[in-house]
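Task card 7
Instruction: Convert sequence to structure tokens.
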Amino acid sequence: MSRQDALIGFIREALLGGASDDAVTADAELLTTGLIDSLGLMRLIAFIRKEFGTDVPYEDILIENFRTVRCIDDYLTNRPAGVAG
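Output:
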């Protein structure tokens, strides 16, 4: 399972109560459409920490890093060298 698939699965199951529709895709706007709220974002960050062993510093919690699943995946892939995770 890819990282994007894991993120989509978590969002569907844990944050949207098992939504099986196509609302959550790699390019679906998560925050600006209200698909997930601020509490959901914190739960998503906790999932990232647990599932991928990656801490997300407060200063990195920006809309451009968490706008879509693809943005999250890009953020996690392109973290600066020397950052744990």
